[in-house]
Write a structure and sequence with these properties.
The complex is a heterodimer of chains A (355) and B (222).
Chain A (H helix, E strand, L loop, with lengths): L3 E5 H11 L4 E4 L6 H10 L6 E4 L3 H13 L4 E5 L1 H16 L4 E7 L15 H5 L10 E3 L4 H18 L2 E7 H5 L1 E5 L33 H21 L3 E4 L6 E4 L2 H16 L4 E6 L1 E3 L3 H8 L4 E6 L5 H8 L6 E5 L8 H14 L4
Parallel strand pairs in A: 2-3, 2-4, 4-5, 5-7, 6-7, 10-11, 10-13, 13-14
Antiparallel strand pairs in A: 1-8, 6-12, 9-11
Helix pairs in contact in A: 1-2, 1-6, 3-4, 9-12, 10-11
Chain B lengths: L6 E6 L5 H14 L4 E6 L12 H7 L2 E4 L18 H4 L4 E6 L2 H5 L6 H7 L2 E7 L9 H15 L5 E4 L9 H5 L2 H11 L3 E7 L3 H4 L6 E4 L8
Classes of the chains: A alpha/beta (355), B alpha/beta (222).
């Protein structure tokens, strides 16, 4: 027997979460992520864990808040409209500095939209989604293996920095099947002296709360939180570079879009076009450094997205608009074809970078 | 393998590859000169369905019975309007692609009385040992029992469709035959076939009984 199994992306997230020590899952079904809940419903009772289908997304995220306050690893998953419903809870968790893993298997929007894959929740994920000054760690897997490994990583980072981590996938990543190795190193044990685990009359009681009665205290925790965010930006950025050494055109794409883009880049290389790709793996913190470095070398950037163009704004910020950035996109649940991306690359090559 | 019963019902845990088997079985029957209809009765999964092979079926002259909402944004369990053609139109061989697990098999409940009355069917459990929830005999038998209960029909065979997707080697397939035989034996039915990607078939010739080579769709843009 091989040590790999054949899994859907959604299943890989669920199994990896269990491997990472998560024993509490709260959710509400929505396509295209329902397999996560289905998998948890089957497995959690067998390993002494808790699977609970809440009465709504709002209820589920507040259950996550509750378990996170006790210091246990906890997660929820949903798809775009459901994440909007959870946004209030995400803001409260940020305000209370609570770690948890949130999974968004995106579908087309806005509104109820559709059930086909999309990346149009980039703004929502990287800008927090809820109200107030806060960030979420946002991880963008591009394979079923990464759906699993980034889930484990997400739990570790969330615990380490006391904040929510989001897996930002899409309908295709959730539904596609690929071989996966579930051989993960033992999770790092993070001490959580702040958790509400009972005082045994031996210590002061811990309070988990996002309400601050004094404005100066609220200001202080906001500044402290942003010092932590600055540290994360400097230390936790993840990305992959593909054929960037001699690239004159830089494609930027994450998740499913990066797989399509890679096919197009391989084809363009056969035609002698010097094109490479930067694939952000963390969308927040955004990999500013490689884009800034590329801006001094390449003639132009192409952002390939399953949205009307959201990451493109971070590319312009990261590169200080030094070089033109064009958008190659589909929306509404449709995946760009390698041919469409190749055409965009050919056009950029022909224009020598001019828009 | 290509039996002479009119109906072939393909059931199994979701993600075991029922659709790939259904498509290839239908094309093989058609190649034998029979009238063939494929019924996509998946009410569970709105993605990666037999509907994706609509063009190939049309080209081969195979009729497709399918929910008119398949592959659209209509996210409801829906059945095709011509559902009863499955049991009423006895002029055609029928390959039924049933949705995953017992929830997918409930769709057979309403057809079961007519299927039993006609008494010309095979109901096969499609298994893939590389799927995480059906890696051993007991867990596979559990799913099998749930499906048979929901369908109101008994299994008559096991199809070994064990694979690791694009990374599958001949050895991967070979290693699963023992498991598939054990599942079949425990369920009291024959192991009908072991499938393999056509490109690996030569390596397994003579090593695996009832080898059924599959032509797999490989036209994804990612």
């Amino acid at each position: 027997m091989a040590d790999k199994v054949l899994m859907k992306g959604n299943e890989a997230i669920a199994e990896a979460a269990i491997c990472a020590g998560c024993r509490h899952y709260f959710g509400y079904p929505i396509t295209p992520q329902t397999e996560i809940a289905a998998y948890m419903a089957k497995k959690m009772p067998k390993i002494g864990g808790c699977f609970l289908q809440a009465e709504s997304e709002v209820a589920a995220i507040n259950m996550v808040y509750g378990v996170a306050a006790t210091g246990k690893r906890v997660m929820t998953s949903s798809s775009s409209p459901g994440i909007s419903l959870k946004a209030e809870g995400l803001s409260y968790m940020a305000g209370a500095d609570l770690p948890a893993l949130i999974v968004n298997v995106q579908r087309g929007g806005p509104g109820l939209g559709g059930i086909q894959p999309s990346q149009s929740d980039y703004f929502q994920a990287t800008r927090g989604g809820g109200h107030g000054d806060y960030r979420m760690l946002v991880l963008a897997p591009a394979s079923v293996q990464e759906m699993a490994s980034l889930t484990v990583k997400g739990f570790d980072l969330a615990d380490k920095y006391r904040m929510t981590a989001m897996i930002l996938a899409d309908g295709t990543m959730g539904q596609m099947m690929e071989p996966v190795s579930l051989d993960f190193p033992e999770a790092e044990k993070v001490e959580k002296p702040w958790a509400t685990t009972g005082t045994d009359m031996a210590r002061e009681h811990n309070i988990v709360n996002s309400l601050f009665l004094q404005p100066d205290e609220l200001e202080r925790v906001n500044f402290e939180r942003y010092e932590r965010y600055a540290y994360i930006e400097a230390n936790e950025t993840m990305y992959e570079e593909y054929l960037m050494e001699d690239a004159e055109i830089c494609v930027a794409a994450f998740g499913i879009a990066s797989r399509v883009a890679k096919n197009a880049i391989n084809e363009a290389r056969k035609q002698g076009i010097k094109v490479g790709m930067i694939r952000p793996i963390t969308l927040w913190p955004f990999p500013v450094a490689p884009f800034a470095a590329a801006a001094d070398k390449v003639k132009s950037f192409i952002s390939v997205e399953l949205s009307m163009g959201q990451m493109i704004e971070d590319i312009k910020l990261a590169t200080s608009c030094k070089k033109p950035v064009t958008l190659c996109n589909r929306a509404g649940g449709i995946i760009p074809s390698p041919e469409q991306v190749l055409e965009a690359i050919q056009k950029a090559a022909k224009n020598g970078g001019a828009e | 393998m290509l039996h002479n019963k009119r109906l072939t019902l393909l059931c199994g845990h979701y993600g075991t590859g029922k659709t790939n088997v259904a498509v290839n079985l239908a094309l093989a029957l058609k190649a034998r000169g029979e009238a063939v209809t494929v019924a996509d009765l998946d009410i569970v999964n709105p993605y990666f369905r037999t509907m994706d092979s609509a063009d190939a079926f049309e080209h081969a002259g195979i009729r497709l019975i399918c929910s008119r909402f398949a592959n659209s944004n209509v996210d409801i369990p829906s059945l095709p309007p011509d559902l009863y053609a499955i049991t009423d139109d006895r002029e055609t061989r029928m390959v039924l692609d049933i949705g995953g697990d017992d929830s997918g098999a409930t769709v057979l409940g309403r057809l079961a009385p007519a299927i039993l009355a006609e008494d010309s069917f095979e109901m096969w459990m499609v298994v893939n040992q590389y799927r995480p929830l059906t890696r051993d005999v007991p867990s596979t038998l559990e799913v099998m029992g749930e499906i048979a209960a929901a369908a109101g029909l008994p299994f008559t065979g096991v199809v070994n469709n064990s694979n690791l997707g694009a990374e599958t080697t001949a050895d991967h397939v070979l290693a699963t035959v023992e498991y598939a035989e054990a599942v079949a034996k425990a369920a009291g039915v024959p192991l009908v076939m072991t499938t393999v990607d056509r490109r690996l078939a030569a390596e397994l010739e003579g090593k695996v009984p009832n080898l059924f080579p599959l032509t797999l769709q490989d036209n994804k843009p990612f």
